[in-house]
Specification:
By secondary structure, this protein is an alpha+beta fold. Helices cover about 60% and strands about 10% of the residues. It has helices at about 5-55, 60-70, 95-145, 160-215, 220-250, 265-275, 275-280, 300-320, 375-385; strands at about 260-265, 285-290, 295-300, 325-330, 335-340, 385-395, 395-405. The protein has a 5-stranded mixed sheet, covered by helices on one side. The two termini are about 45 Å apart.
Length: about 400
């Protein structure tokens, strides 16, 4: 596998170049010295011969001697054979042969030194690589043991560092997944506990009322009808609870896909009001919409209508009879806003931070409330890149502020 980054290899090559450069410098000095030694020996021996010739032949022309020495004329190779010298394999000057042998030895020592230096550098490089690989293997073993607390972040840029950084990212993701899985298990446990509690109460009531009807065949019709109405109400509550839980579960599992389209916020609000019309009439509550401007929002109208409907149901549930709920629609360059304000009993200060929590039932919640409508509304709004917050004044009013960005 060829890794993109070759920084470590480059470093190794750069370090290897250093002994090569040193070898080349020493080699050049060495060959220069060798050449000068040869020249000096040759010149000394020729000077001795010239001196001898001048003594034997004092009238000889010096220019003629220099001309002979620089002449390209070849002399028979056999001329030195009478002296026992083979000019093809030996130097006429024995001292040069000795120098050459010495130079060969030194040169080979330099070559061996260069080779050893590169080998040592390579072994050191491999040792460092193996050390880092062992660290990575150790980290992987710890990760396999589900130990995600290790820190293997590395700021260098060589291949193994890139691998360690990628492994570090994987470790962080696995750690987050493990933590999320743990949270999900706790949430599932809490949800199952809440669901069990929510279902247990109405089912127990239904069971008791059915036992009363069965154990008292002579029960008067009014009492029997009252029991039947209560059973119907509890069944309706169970059906509503199961439906809300299924919707939240789908959001938790990310299986719901919004079909976003441009839609007028006013149309969403009108549809939501239509859904709670009968509920509002029972308490003679009027719902007034202000600022009915043509403000468009890109969203899934069906789900956003459900979110607004759930908030309106909460407002109606806690509003006084013969009161008014007002809805304002506004927009600016940053967000679109829906403000829903009731004139009810308000929310207790202790309950205010928890009203969007699943299955939370505040101090003033009705006995039929399942405590999941506002949690579902918040989930839907936030899935559409929105936010919802609440402000309440005890005994006066509650205001829900919804913003879509």
């Amino acid at each position: 596998m060829i890794l993109e980054n070759k920084v470590l290899l480059k470093k190794f090559l750069l370090v290897s170049i250093i002994p090569i450069i040193i070898f080349l410098i020493i080699g050049n000095i060495f060959f220069t010295y060798q050449y000068q030694s040869y020249i000096q020996n040759y010149n000394n021996k020729i000077a001795t011969l010239v001196n001898l010739i001048e003594k034997e032949y004092p009238n000889i022309d010096r220019n003629e001697l220099v001309s002979i020495l620089n002449s390209n004329k070849k002399v028979s190779e056999n001329i030195f054979s009478r002296y026992g010298i083979d000019i093809k394999n030996e130097s006429i000057i024995i001292q040069n042969d000795k120098l050459f042998s010495g130079f060969i030895i030194v040169y080979n020592i330099l070559l061996i030194g260069l080779a050893l230096s590169i080998i040592l550098l390579y072994l050191k490089h491999e040792k460092n690589q193996n050390k880092e690989i062992k660290k990575i293997v150790k980290c992987i073993e710890e990760i396999n043991k589900k130990n995600y607390s290790i820190n293997i972040d590395d700021n260098s840029e060589d291949e193994l560092s890139i691998l360690k950084n990628e492994l570090y990212k994987i470790t962080i993701m696995l750690k987050e997944d493990a933590e999320n899985s743990k949270k999900d298990k706790h949430m599932l446990k809490d949800s199952l506990s809440d669901i069990s509690h929510q279902l247990k109460t109405p089912l127990t009531s239904i069971n008791i009322m059915l036992d009363n009807i069965l154990d008292n065949p002579n029960m008067d019709n009014n009492t029997k009808e009252k029991f039947i109405q209560n059973i119907k109400r509890e069944i309706t509550n169970i059906s509503s609870l199961v439906g809300e839980i299924l919707k939240l579960s789908k959001f938790d599992a990310n299986v719901i896909k919004f079909e976003d389209q441009p839609v007028f916020i006013n149309d969403i609000v009108k549809e939501a009001i239509s859904n709670v019309e009968m509920m509002a009439e029972l308490k003679n509550i009027s719902i007034k919409v202000n600022n009915q401007r043509n403000v468009k929002l890109v969203c899934d109208a069906k789900w956003q209508t459900e979110a607004i409907t759930n908030i309106l149901k909460n407002c109606i549930e806690h509003s006084k009879e013969n009161s008014t709920i007002t809805i304002d629609i506004d927009s600016n360059k940053i967000y679109k806003q829906i403000t829903i304000r009731d004139n009810g009993e308000g929310i207790d200060e202790k309950d205010l931070p928890h009203i969007f929590e699943r299955f939370y039932k505040g101090k003033n919640s009705s006995k039929d409330s399942v405590g999941i409508g506002l949690a579902l509304a918040k989930t839907i709004i936030e899935k559409n890149n929105g936010s919802v917050k609440v402000d309440s004044k005890k005994g006066k009013q509650t205001t829900f502020i919804i913003k879509y960005y």
